[in-house]
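Re-run requested by the PI after the first attempt was lost when the workstation crashed. Everything re-entered from the original request form. Ligand of interest: 6-O-phosphono-beta-D-fructofuranose.
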Amino acid sequence: MRIGVLTGGGDCPGLNAVIRAVAKSLIHHGHCEVVGILDGFEGLMGDAPRTRPLGWGDVSGILHIGGTILGTSNSANPLKDDATLAQVGRNVRALGLDGVVAIGGDGTMSIAHGLRAVGLNAVGVPKTIDNDIAHCERSFGFDTAVATATDALRRIESTAYSHHRVMIVETMGRHAGWLALESGIASAADVILLPEIDYGLEAVIARCRAREQRQRYTIVCIGEGAKERGGSLTVRERVEYSPDPVRLGGVGHVLRERLQPHLKSEVRATVLGHVQRGGDPTPFDRVLATRFGHHAARLVIEGRFGRMVTLQGGRIGSVAIADVANTQRTVPPDHELLAMARDIGVCLGE
Ligand code: F6P
């Protein structure tokens, strides 16, 4: 078989580890030829598809390296119109691809699902620092992002303490609060604000005022998709044709402006941004990414296309890509971590 591999959507630590595991398993175990498709689905669009061979030597020595050797795109949308879709179909046939391993988030899974219409057989591998893919309790990249955000929060804490400030730290995560929740808990943040729980400004003010009296500094960890009760999302920009048309960012600064008039301490905001997506994957993510890549190759070898690799109850398995396309896994209101955070006195803005 001739199998393509692509990475779609925003990058995350561990992508190279998946590419390596997919290619090595397919070559060693499946006797397949493996081809890398460049820049996500963008490499399959246009008049000439863009690829590179993925032989054993091409994927050696990349396990620990962040980013993706194949490049990625989170604005390429092969489903945007019939002409684009038809061209992708011609490219897939010209490349002689028997299937593709698509490593990406919900946007990538939706596209992979849609490309069945032009005969593309796909196996999906979930990736995202947001940890928001349905039916998958842990996507690789998340552990590394939590570690990076936690480290940043701890660094912010020492300067917050020195200057007696309220420091707001904004994490990524889109419409899911997993990254803010876990890094907030791991760094002992005083206030954690998530997209899933619209916050009341009064509750945040009350917590900061109480801490002004005693500890004299406060750490607020806020997910980029959080919003005030009755307020709206903080949108950085809108992107035409993208499967994800809204880019978030800046809610920390919005909260700073709302809070400052009510507090004696100076309020400052830091947006962590893409630092959370970069760097070498943690050992946990290297292992998870290798497990995911190996399982994706097994699905290909067994001809089980249309499936996405998952982790459920600590076990590797798979679900239909159709069940994942256009869905998101947000923090459920009854999640144990929320109950625990409340019980140990974290303010969730309620
Ligand atoms: O989905 C991963 C993610 O890092 C989100 O947390 C974030 O909102 C988005 O990608 C940022 O994307 P971009 O790099 O296009 O700004």
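Saved to the shared folder this time. The mean pLDDT is 96.
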